[in-house]
């Protein structure tokens, strides 16, 4: 049985006439709230009156996260130059960065987004009792360690920076149905179609994801998946399977970027041995 709930979706009143992209997000969030209500989820749209953060792409691409801001050189995804902060706002530590590509029309390869995977150090310590005794070389290859990271109540964030300049919401929906859908089936079996459909129906056409946009997919305590676009919460859902399925795309056994997965697992191993 899958439980689906949207405890909070946030949109803020804008203090000044907003850039078109942000206005579209606010409108889309309102529409998503209505859709969720119609579909029977508990979703509360709270008009907080707090100013929205500055859109990062009003500056040139990547300028808001310069190398100087983001610490060690390992924080730049080398093929795209996308820079990732060493920590998220919530203090989660960067474990590794990578690239999500796809092919269009069966032949042309495109870079869709760069990503960084983060985890909460204190939550990772749950895994120490089980793994600290193993040599680091084992931990770097240990599939059970990854399964535990995917399944346990460990706060993690995947931060996406859009690289592809012509991303439509329709293509995000169908990519999500395919990638996340296959993982939901892998972990959850048959009754996951409805969960997936309800979830992707919240990705409204009004959202815009221009090059440079930052999306965060966060697993909060108790398996709550929280999504934000440009620092604004767009909704959350408590669902263990969905959290696990999304993280599996990046660190599971058939990841988008194998090299990134190896680096992430290497960082996990070092943290557990420290
Ligand atoms: O323009 O036809 C096209 C190709 C678009 C490919 C899109 C892949 C989308 C991947 C998900 C992005 C999630 C932010
Ligand atoms: O790369 O296949 C993939 C999965 C990417 C997950 C992207 C989730 C995007 C959620 C925000 C959409 C808002 C329109």
UniProtKB/TrEMBL annotation:
Superkingdom of this protein's organism: Eukaryota
Annotated transmembrane regions: 23-45
Keyword Zinc: no
GO cellular component: chloroplast stroma
Any GO molecular function: fatty acid binding
Key words of the record: Membrane, Transmembrane, Transmembrane helix
GO biological process: fatty acid metabolic process
Gene3D superfamilies (UniProt xref): 1.10.890.20, 3.50.70.10
Annotated Chalcone isomerase domain residues: 93-264
Family matches, as Pfam families: Chalcone_2
InterPro entries named among the record's database cross-references: Chalcone_isomerase, Chalcone_isomerase_3-sand, Chalcone_isomerase_bundle_sf, Chalcone_isomerase_sf, FAP1
Entry similarity comment: Belongs to the chalcone isomerase family.
Protein name stated in the entry: Chalcone--flavanone isomerase
């Amino acid at each position: 049985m899958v439980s689906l709930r949207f405890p909070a979706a946030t949109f803020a009143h804008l203090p000044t006439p907003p850039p078109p992209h942000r206005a579209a997000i606010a409108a889309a969030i309102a529409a998503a709230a209505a859709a969720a209500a119609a579909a029977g989820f508990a979703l509360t749209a709270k008009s907080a009156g707090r100013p929205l953060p500055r859109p990062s792409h009003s500056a040139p691409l990547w300028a808001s996260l310069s190398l100087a801001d983001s610490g060690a050189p390992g924080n730049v995804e080398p093929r795209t130059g996308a820079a990732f902060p060493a920590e998220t706002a919530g203090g989660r530590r960067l474990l590794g960065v990578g690239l999500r590509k796809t092919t269009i029309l069966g032949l042309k390869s495109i870079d869709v987004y760069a990503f960084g995977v983060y985890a909460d150090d204190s939550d990772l310590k749950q895994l120490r009792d089980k793994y600290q005794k193993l040599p680091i070389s084992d931990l770097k290859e240990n599939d059970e360690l990854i399964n535990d990271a995917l399944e346990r109540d460990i706060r993690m964030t995947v931060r996406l920076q859009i690289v592809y300049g012509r991303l439509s919401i329709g293509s995000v929906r169908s990519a999500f149905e395919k990638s996340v859908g296959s993982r939901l089936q892998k972990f959850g079996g048959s009754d996951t179609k409805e969960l997936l459909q309800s979830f992707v129906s919240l990705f409204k056409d009004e959202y815009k994801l221009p090059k440079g946009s930052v999306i965060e997919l966060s697993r909060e305590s108790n398996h709550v998946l929280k999504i934000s676009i440009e620092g604004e919460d767009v909704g959350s859902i408590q669902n263990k399977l969905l959290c696990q399925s999304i993280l599996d795309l990046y660190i599971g056994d058939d990841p988008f970027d194998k090299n990134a997965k190896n680096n992430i697992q290497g960082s996990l191993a070092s943290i557990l041995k420290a």
